[in-house]
Amino acid sequence: RKEVEQDPGPFNVPEGATVAFNCTYSNSASQSFFWYRQDCRKEPKLLMSVYSSGNEDGRFTAQLNRASQYISLLIRDSKLSDSATYLCVVTLPDKDSNYQLIWGAGTKLIIKP
Amino acid sequence: NAGVTQTPKFRILKIGQSMTLQCTQDMNHNYMYWYRQDPGMGLKLIYYSVGAGITDKGEVPNGYNVSRSTTEDFPLRLELAAPSQTSVYFCASSYSTGLAGGYNEQFFGPGTRLTVL
After folding, report:
1. Chain A within 8 Å of B39 (Cβ-Cβ)?
2. Chain segment A40-97, per-residue pLDDT in tens
3. Nearest by CB to B100, which of A45, A93, A102?
4. Count of CB atoms within 10 A of residue B84's CB?
5. In terms of C-beta density within 10 A (0-12 exposed, 13-18 middle, 19 or more buried), how is residue B102 classed?
6. Looking at the complex, does the CB of residue A16 fall below 8 Å from at least one CB of chain B?
7. Of A10, A16, A106, B42, whose CB count within 10 A is highest?
8. Residue of B45, B50, B90 with shortest CB distance to A43
């Protein structure tokens, strides 16, 4: 089983719709969680952190479910510019009290006019 | 600030050739990283550095070498290129205390697309 799994998509969604996708992680010791956005043939950029209490940033809402070991990203009123691949990132502490990042392969989202 | 810059943007190598991928950051970040991203796969950490003079292996270090002589520069060396090293290579940097749970955003360069034929 992969440490971090995402549905690769693509999710084809009409403009203005709401879309949500999940990311599951296998290690219960995972500490921190993030969503990065990667545009086609570009570098990843941090979209938002995912806190235990959930967090919202404009049209984007991220949730963490530790019991079921997944995080989610919900996008409301989707825009054409939201088309991208969304990468899930999970941190795990290592023996030296540093952390390692585990990256999901990403979910591709296509917003259609 | 330019952020993280990488050169070259594209490169085609023949099997057995060597090359150095350059990475420079101007944010005075302690941590720097090299990742590779294969189609449909997550980012895989090749090497990382927590400061000048200190480097460590990541998940997939075989076939690569790094050095960190300054805070700003973190070049990645490919020796004896192989087709399996065809990938997109991203350099990233972050400011981090290194404490468990202490994560700071990673800033990425634009990537180098490498093809080995």
Report:
1. no
2. 989 999 999 898 888 999 999 999 999 999 999 999 999 999 999 999 999 887 666 6
3. A93
4. 10
5. middle
6. no
7. A106
8. B90
Q: What is the pLDDT of residue A93?
A: 76
DSSP state of B32: E
Query: pLDDT tens across B14-34, in order?
Result: 999 999 999 999 999 988 999
CA A44, A48, A52: angle at the middle one, nearest 5?
Answer: 135
B111 vs A43: CA distance, rounded Å: 7
Tokens of B80: 């004896």
Determine the Cα–Cα distance for residues A37 and A82; give it in Å rounded to an integer. 9
C-alpha dist (Å) from residue B19 to B22, B27, B38: 10, 26, 19
Task: Name the band, by pLDDT with cuts 50, 70 and 90, for residue B103.
Answer: low
Q: Each residue of A45-84: b (16+ CB within 10 Å) or e? A: ebbbbbeeeeeeeeebbbbbeeeeebbbbebeebeeebbb
**Would the pLDDT of B97 be above 70?**
no
Q: Do B108 and A87 touch (CB under 8 A)?
A: no
Report the length, in residues, of chain B. 117
Instruction: Evaluate whether B13 touches B116 at the Cβ level (below 8 Å).
Output: yes
Q: How far is CA B80 from the centre of its chain?
A: 17
Q: How far apart are CA B98 and CA B31, in angstroms?
A: 9
Q: What is the pLDDT of residue B36?
A: 97
| Residues B20, B7, A104, A32, Cα dihedral to 10° | 100
The larger pLDDT score, comparing residue B57 to residue A100, is at B57
